[in-house]
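task queued by scheduler; priority normal; single chain, no ligands, no partner chains; default sampling; output format set to C-alpha cells
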Amino acid sequence: MSKKRKGIFVKSRIFMELKLTRPICFFDLETTGVNVAKDRIVEIAILKIYPNGNKESKTWLVNPEMEIPEEVIAVHGITNEKVANEPTFKELSKEIYKIIKDSDLGGFNSDRFDIPLLAEELLRADIDFDMKNTVSVDVQTIFHKMEKRTLEAAYKFYCDKDLTDAHSAEADTMATYEVLLSQLDRYPDLENNIKKLSEFSKRKQSVDFAGFIALDEDGEEIFSFGKHKGKKVHAVLDNEPGYFGWMLNADFPLYTKKILTQIKLSKLNNKLG
C-alpha cells in the first residue's frame, strides 16, 4: 500500500478528511414532487461534519400536509399513511434550522433543488433563512463536470459500492458525502477547500438558487427569465415599477421574492443615502 493519509475508513476504502473552517451539512430531501414553490418535504436527512472531524446525523419523516402523488410514492416509497402522524415541517423547522444555521451546505443536485425547496419550507415556517454568509457544494455538478453520470453511478464509480437504498434520504446523504471525499482523492486539481469547491460546483452565478435572478459579468443582479432576461434588476424595477408587484403575487419561490425585495430595498436605501 502507498503511504498512509489521514482519513476515515469506510468499508475498506480510505478517504481524506474534508478541510473545514466551519461545519458543513450534507443533506437530502424526499418530496411530494419537483416544483420548488409548491411541493413539500416528506423526508429530510442531515449529516453534519465539524472541522475537528466529528459527525452527527439526523433523519426525519415529515407530514407534508398535502397528498403525495402515486407516481412520486413509486420513486421514494414514502406513502401518505407513513407520514400521516409525523410532525409537519413547521413543527420541525426550529430544530432543523438550529443544526444548519452555522454551517455551509452540501448535497447532490442541491443548488437547483434541495436548497431552494428547503429555503421555501423554512421561509414558510417564518424562519428568516438566508444564504448570504453560507456557501454550498453541489457534488452532482462536480460529478457532471468530471464524469457526467447519476448518484448511483457516481457512488459505484468513485466508491466502488452499490447504492442499494437509493431515494432514501439518509442513504443518499451518506453516499453524497462519500462521493465528495472520493472526488477529492481522485482529482488532484480539486482543492480541499469548501469555498473553492462551492465555486467549482456552481453551474452559474445564481443569486436566488432557483435561477430567476443571476449575476452579470459586473457582479450586478439581472433577470434570467422572461421578457426582461439579461436586464439589470434595478433598471427593470425603475422603468416598470409594476413588475415588482407582479413577481411578488405570482407563483415564484419565496426565496426569490425575498432576494428581489432585498434588491429593491437596497436600491431605495442608496437613493435615500
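post-processing summary
- The longest helix spans residues 254-272.
- The longest strand covers residues 41-49.
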